[in-house]
Amino acid sequence: MNDKMNITNFQLFFLLIHMQVGVGVLSLPYDIFVKAKNNGWLSVIITGLIIQTILLLFHLLMSRFPEDNIFDISKKLFGKFFGNICIFLFYLCYVFIGILILVKFAYLLHAWMMPHTPKWVLLGLISFTAVFIVKENIKILARFATIASVVFIGFFVLIIYAIRHANFSNVLPIASEGVLPIIEGLPPSIFAFQGFELFIVVYPFMQSSPKNILKTVTIANAFVTFFYLFLVLVSIMFFSEAELKLIPEPVLYLIKSFSFRIIERPDLLFTSMWIVLVATTYSGTIYASSLALTTFRKTRTLTIYASLTAFICFVGALTFTKKQIITFASYIQNYFIVPFLWGIPVLLLLVSLLFQKKGEVKSTDEA
Hints:
Amino acid/polyamine transporter I
């Protein structure tokens, strides 16, 4: 692997948390509360453990093929014909996710920040940004994710401020309605963690040992779990049950309720930081889909495929306008696309173990 393409454990950590914390973070407390009520925070903890189990399976697969990404492995284990079909399905999944990211991004910006800005302008700007970031190689995206991570400081500062007005009794009694609501809260929580599968796309670009890579993805998952847990707990403690049922973006409503001498509308500042998270998440999705096409077509012209994919997502997002279509598309993503993105790697792992297939040994220095 070309050294110019390698990324460090430090960069991988920030890349993974940006892929997971994206467009859905603003509505996460509401989505979980609808199902699990005031015990939604328990659903988040359980989800973190589930995702860690999946990451362990992913790591076991990638450690058997250290020089290959998930697309290369698909060809090696499924054969050229079925492998290419699998790769193309991966591509379609990423495109679908990219379209939904743009749709939700435009909707929230219209509702909270730029009600009079044409939708195509918002979508065009973020699409251009994504192509510009990923057109060279993964290292540029990793560096951008690392630098952009400063926005998490602002997130934590603003949310911590809300604790002053929190009612800690809102989370009590714990599990008062039994285990079933907590289980029902798992699906929306699990969907919020979607994005960590980029790990199996960028694995061959890592310049570290498998042990250190596993440590990095574990820490990244722990960070995201804590971050989501923090958001859900603060939202539950800040709003009453009746209020939380009525506000689909509780995080923004929470921030909007504050007023500072210097910043009159902190929710606009918060939204600006959120835009950076969405841009990184969308860029990672464009990169993964473009890399899938380069493997499918056996070429390295990533820029052309990144531009093509961004254009497809742009047109698709302009087409998805009705609320019913968006709801149906989200259902497709959650119950078909996400299981595919997580299930195929596990299937590949089982095939590799069953037929005792491995890739070439990766020789790298500790990072």
